[in-house]
Each structure stands twice: as structure tokens, then as C-alpha cells.
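TEACHING EXERCISE
Course module: macromolecular assemblies
Task: Read the component lines below, then compare them to the predicted structure of the full complex.
Student: A.B.
Group: 4
Components provided:
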Amino acid sequence: MKSYLIETGNGRTQTRVLETGAGPQLLYLHSAGGVVENDPFLEALGQQFHVYAPSLPGYLDSEGADNLRTMLDFTLWGFDVMEVLGIEHPVVVGHSMGGMIAAEMASLNPRAFKGLGLISAAGLWLDDYPMPDIFAKLPFELPDLLFSDPALGTQIISEGYDFGSNQDELVSFMTRFQDETFLQDFLIKNARRMGTAGKILFPIPERGLSERLYRATLPTVIVWGDADKLMPMPYAEAFQRLLPHAELVTIAGAAHMAPYEQTGEVLSALARFH
Amino acid sequence: MKFTFFHLMAWPHLADDFREKHHSVWVDVPNSLYDPARGHEVYHNYLDQLEYAEQCGFDGLGVNEHHSNAYGLMPSPNLMAATLTRRTSRAAIMVLGNSIALYNPAVRVAEEFAMLDVMSGGRFIGGFPVGTSMDTNYAYGTVPTETRERYAEAHELIIKAWTEREPFAFNGRYNKLRYVNIWPRPLQQPYPAIHIPGGGSVETYDFCIENTYSYSYLSYSGYLRGRDLMRGYWDQVASRAVDESPYRAGFAQVICVGETDAEAEKLYKQHIDYFYNRCLHVYPGFGEAPGYRTIKTLKRGAIPQLTPKGVKTLSQLSWKELLDQRYVICGSPETVREQCEEMIKDLRFGNLFCLMALGDMPNEKVRHSTRLFGEKVMPKLRHLWPDYADDNRFWCRPVANRRHPDRELRGVA
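Instructor-supplied answer key:
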């Protein structure tokens, strides 16, 4: 996996890009949790696509969060990244928050993309299904909310943290969050990441996308876990209703972090974009 | 010294098992727990206590702004201050303050503070807190990373609205106004003294020093824990080569006075326990939205109580711990004087915000404690800073010929 920094928008951001695989070009936009170097889902995606995964300012070592304020800024950042990388007519796929940005990009300029993949995408709000407030969750509460297997979730959430000599040790979930060094490191990373995410997700992850989705007249696949506790199935159905050409692929038993737990199923849903 | 009787206005009817049964005292505490009929009684008791504090010799009466909670029932402190302009006539009326990032357009604060200043005859003192994350982000929905930018813009707009004498246009990011032209404008010139509640960031120290605002540390963790923070402030004051007037700083302290140490413990212990264990039962997930604090400050700060263990033990402090660690100054007038004097000198501040009406403390106990403090403690602490007796930059400047509606009404009756 290649990893490099690019500058977008005349220096407005320094954006870390992870690039991997071969095949049709695919722009991947990450969730509020972000991706890590050698991210297992990106590796898997790279077996079918030539993947470009930029990280928003606040994620990894990308900088320039002060220059992204509104939904439009986030959307234009996506186009700026494409321009700098010279990507033409890719498939755009986003997970959760990244899905919200991907859907905005596709609504703004549907002809720029070969297809749109939305995995447990944010961007809508249904009064009958108010989603839990991820901004008010403590670290140790997240795995259960986001993963179908909380133990695996803890491992994934902790990934990227340098445990030094303990790296290979199986450190239990509770023990990790009791560790003050781990906690401080986690909190700072979390504040950078979620500070950025909050600009489009706080306090309600809705910035008018539903009024613009009619424009996204490109082939679209919506991929959703039917055990998603954060954004339950009615959100998937609402996306399908609002998007002109969307097919819904439901993954049985999958939670919000389906890309990491049911990687194979998510990949086969995206296979139509080969 | 200036002594302000500071009211938090807690809801005093939380059940004994509140902590066990409820997630948080703030943000998502259901308002089914609030009984408006009892609320009527509660508000009037609390306002009575503020008015009584003036009679007991307090220099200031303090109120503040909080939202969606059972800890402090003043979503609009300005309403409380307005009633005090009619029922008191000597003490400063301190609104500490309005969370200016939440007002759009922020000229609303400039207008209401000006109204209070005019109504009170120049007895008004204002405050501009950033606001807790519970209030600002969770209850009022401000995007965390925008909080400080909105604050800075609101501050600029308010000061300009107070000082310009012709209508002007203000093209802010969040406040876009073609005509800024506030009526009324403040009575005190150029505008009332401003106090800023802070939590230890260097940026706030500098903000106070540059604007000649008083820096206030409002916590409930007492002066031993406040020491490092206040030293940081005074170091910054020294490095900026401005005068070191103690009135540049204020500090809030829980204080309970009885005739004797034993009486004080007997009278107040249960209410202090209510305050610390019920009123401060804030779910840590609401303590600080990611992005509310800058990364720089986070890197310097201590680890919040966010571990599962921390959540469980938060605010479960014994009475002895509360006293020994000076969370609470409680005892006879002499005990309270001694500990207050040590605190005032050690932390170096001229504005003491006395937290004397806490939790579910009944009216008669609040009055007892307030009266003893006013009669037996305050006079002995009043002259601790003789070199700065004339420093009125951080206090109100009432006009001499102001109306006294409280006394006039009595005459009519």
C-alpha cells in the first residue's frame, strides 16, 4: 500500500492518501473512525479496484481542518483530491460519514463518477429512528454500538496504537481503556478526528442531503447491515427511496462496521462496478 | 475584597436513588423530574436568598446560565438579574454570564446586558463564559469546533455594539448584520466590568489580560486543586508586565458557616452531599464534546474521568475528603475565616464567589450560613488587599442618583 501526502486547494489542506490495488479506479471516503495505514478493508478492496483513500484533515496526519467548515467545503475537498491525483471518472464509495460526502459529490456532479457505493452512509435523519449520539459515547461504549462482535471491535478501534513491547499481547478491552497513556492518546486522536467529523455530523448528521439526492442519477449500490444499531435499516430504505438508480444490498447480521466484519459481502456488493 | 453571593439554583427534589436511576443530571435528565408547582416555590426561595444576601452585606449577587439540567435552573440568568434590579438597590448584580457563542445574533447579549445596566443604575457586572460542553454543544447544538470561533466573533460584535455611537455593518462568519444599532446602551462607560470564567487555558489568561477582564475560576473542587491553575494565571500576568491587582482574579468556593464546627457539619453535611453526589452527577460522555477543547489544551490537560472505573467513582467523595481537600470550607466563623484567608492569599484573588446555597439546602439554613458569613467572617477578610482598595476596574460603578425601587415600594405599601 502506497502512502503519501498531497496538498489540495492551494494549500488549504495537506491530505494523506493511501493507494493500493489494481483495476478500475475507486475513490474511497472513510467513516468518522478513519482508516489506518495498511487498513484491512482497503487491502481487500484493492484486490478488485485501484483504490485511492484520502484522509480528511484531523485523520492520520492530514492537516487543515480549520479550512473545512461546511458540507460544501468537505464535498469540494473530495473533488480537489481527485484533481490533484488526476483521477478520471472513478467509482466513489463511502462508509458512514464518507458515504455522506460521496453522496454529496455524486449529487453535485453525477457525471464525474462511474458509480456510487454507499456503505451504512450518514447524511439523513429520520425522526422515527433517532440515532444514538456518537459524540456522547465514551471510548469503552463504542465497540458494542458499532460492531456485531464487540471484542473484535475493541481490537479494531485500538489499532494504530503503539503498545510497544505489548504489541503482540492480547490486552483485554477493559484493560486498554483503563490505561491512562492509551486513553490520553486515544482522546487526542479522537478529538482531532471527531472534531472534524462534528463539522458535518454534530449534533445531527444531516446537512440537507435529502434535498439534493435526486440529482445523483448514476448507478448506485447501497450496502447495509441489517443489525446496524447506529443507523438502522430504515435509513438504507430512505436512501433507496431518494436516489434515482439505487439498489439495496442487505447483509444479514452485519453492524455499522460491516466493511471490517463482513468484508467479503461488502466487496461482492461493490463488484458490479468492475 | 469583594464578596459575591453566587446562586446556582439547583433543583432540590432529586430522589435519594437519583444517581443509580439516572444517566446524568445534565443534558438528558428527563424534565418529568421537574415539578413546576414546586418550581414556583423554589424560584422564590432562591430569589429571596439573593435579596437577603444584600442585606447581609454581600457586595455582589451572582447568577449564571445553564441549560437542560437539574443542577442549575437558570437558562436565562438575565431574567433573574432583572428581578434583582427591582428588589435590591446596593449590591452589584453579576451575570456570570451569558454564553455568548449561543446567541445569534449576539447583539442580543449587548442589548440585554445594557438593559440590566440601565435598570440597575450601573450596578451590573457581566460575564462571557464559553459555556460548558453540556450546555453549548449538547443542549444547544453548537458544533464543537465552532464554539470558540463563534465566541470570539460574538465578543467582538458585543463590544463594538456597546461602544459605537452610529449604526454600523458587521460582516461576521456567523453574525451578518447590515445595521447594528443597540438601544439601550450601557450606563457604565465605556461598558460594564467583565469577568471571564476560565478552565486553565493560556489563551483565556491572555484574553483577560489584554481586555482588562477579571479571570474567574469557577469550580467545585476547591482551592487546593485550583492552586496550579491560578498560579499559571499569575505567572502569565507577570510575564505580560501588567499590574498584579488581585481583582484581576476571582474564585468560587463552597462555603458553609455554623455557630461551631460541629453545628456546621450537622446542618450542612447532607446538603453538600446532595450537591456533590446528585447535582454533579454528569455523565462523562457529556463532559467534553470532541473538538470543544483545542488539541493544544488537551495535550497539556489531565486525563478526564473517562475510564469505566472513573465513571463509577466520580463524585463519590467522603465528607472528610471534601473538607480535607478543601472542596468545601465548612465550620465555625473562625474556621471559615482562617481557611478563606489562607485561600485568598495563596491563590491571590480579590473576588470571592461564595457558593452558600447548595443542592437541597433549605431556606432557613441558607440564611443562617449567609448571615453568619456576612456578620462574622466578611468583616475580617474585607481589607486583605489594602494596596488595591481603589481599583474599581473590575467592579461596577453605580450612579449616585439612582432609583431605589425596593425602598420606594415599601413606602407606598
